[in-house]
Amino acid sequence: MADPTLESTNGSGTVIARNNNWKDTDQAVIQATGMAPPYDAESAIVASLIPGNYTAIVRGNGGTTASLWWKCTRCINCDHHGATLAAK
């Protein structure tokens, strides 16, 4: 997918984060994870979340479609009451 968008929703379907081009929002935070996408048109979200159900939605910007490679989220500091998640 040449230009994906990424959206994250909580268990009730409320959008909690949205990204189109990863450098447009939270560039320094995303780079600090060491998992920044290699291309500017890719999407990434870094969020600190309380335990619960979340959904990541990937779409093509402008309604484009293609096959998709997805790297699953990883949990950092999972021994705490909340967890910090990084999605790429």
Describe the structure.
The protein is built from 1 helix and 6 strands. It has 88 residues and is mainly beta. The protein has one domain. It has a 3-stranded antiparallel sheet, with no helix packed on it. The chain is flat, with a radius of gyration of 13 Å. The two termini are 14 Å apart.
Summarize this, please?
This protein has one helix at residues 27-32, and strands spanning 4-10, 15-19, 45-49, 54-60, 74-76, 83-87. It is mainly beta and 88 residues long.
Topology at a glance:
Elements: E1 4-10, E2 15-19, H1 27-32, E3 45-49, E4 54-60, E5 74-76, E6 83-87
Antiparallel strand pairs: 1-2, 1-4, 3-6, 5-6
